[in-house]
Amino acid sequence: MSNPIEDAMLTAEDAKKISDENYAKEQLKPIFRDAPPYNIMFQKELEDILCFFKSKFPSVGRGRNRIAFSIGKNYIAKIPLNEEGVYDNCHERLCYKNRRNWEYPYARCRMCGDFVLIMEKLDLKVNKKDLPDWVKWVDCAQVGYDSRGMLKIYDYGYY
Ligand SMILES: Nc1ncnc2c1ncn2[C@@H]1O[C@H](COP(=O)(O)OP(=O)(O)OP(=O)(O)O)[C@@H](O)[C@H]1O
Ligand SMILES: [Mg+2]
After folding, report:
1. What is the pTM of this model?
2. DSSP of 22-72
3. Which residue, by CA, sits nearest to atom 28 of ligand 1?
4. Exposed (0-12), middle (13-18) or buried (19+): which is 151, by Cβ within 10 Å?
5. CA 148, CA 158: separation in Å to the nearest integer?
6. What's the pLDDT tens digit per position in 98-107?
7. Distances (CA, A) of 73 to 42, 90, 113, 158
8. How far apart are CA 17 and CA 28, in angstroms?
9. Which of 51, 106, 120, 155 fits a disulfide with 142 by CB distance 3.0 to 4.6 angstroms?
10. Is the beta carbon of 113 within 6 A of some atom in ligand 1?
């Protein structure tokens, strides 16, 4: 992956965190220990992150748990809208890391800080007739083409 941090113009502090996934996992523990229903501490932090992205980048789509912002030509950032979204981001990163154990192609991604997932941007304009058989196993056929024309899954969150 080229440097998504530079593309996104995020801070040097975020850049340091991106390389330390254990740090991110430690930070996430309290969310799951204290849930349900809601962790007020993280809520504030998530709202701040969301405000930051809203003010800087255009949104390219929204699901039940996350909103995606375009952060340059090649990448999007997924920001959690709730705790499921936080978990979805971690799950996608873990799946991507272990991708050799899976038969499906996942869009490249990595965490930036504790909550934000940076993912390669896919072209979501797909013709249903051209899709291979395996897509029927993908939740709502959420697939798109990468910059080389390879079909990949972009939503492989847990929820
Ligand atoms: N890699 C990507 N490239 C381009 N657009 C994307 C990408 N990932 C997500 N999007 C856009 O952002 C939207 C929300 O992302 P995503 O589907 O991952 O969120 P979610 O909350 O997990 O959704 P769901 O409600 O399906 O569980 C997508 O519907 C899509 O429009
Ligand atoms: Mg989705």
Report:
1. 0.79
2. HHHHHHHHHHHHH-SS--HHHHHHHHHHHHHHHHHS-EEEE-SSEEEEE-S
3. 61
4. middle
5. 27
6. 888 777 899 9
7. 30, 24, 21, 27
8. 13
9. 155
10. no
pLDDT digits (tens, 9 = 90+) for 64-99: 999 999 999 999 999 998 888 999 999 999 999 988
Task: Name the helix (H) or strand (E) containing 133.
Answer: none
The full set of domains in the chain, from first to last, is 4-122 (3.30.200.20)
Q: What are phi and psi of 119, to 5 degrees?
A: -135, 145
Which tokens belong to 68? 């995606």
User: Which atom of ligand 1 sits closest to the CA of residue 155?
Assistant: 18
For 9-40, what is each residue's pLDDT tens digit? 445 565 455 445 555 555 545 444 444 444 55
* Contact status, residue 147 vs residue 159, Cβ threshold 8 Å: no
Return the closest-CA partner of residue 8 out of 78, 62, 86, 92. 78
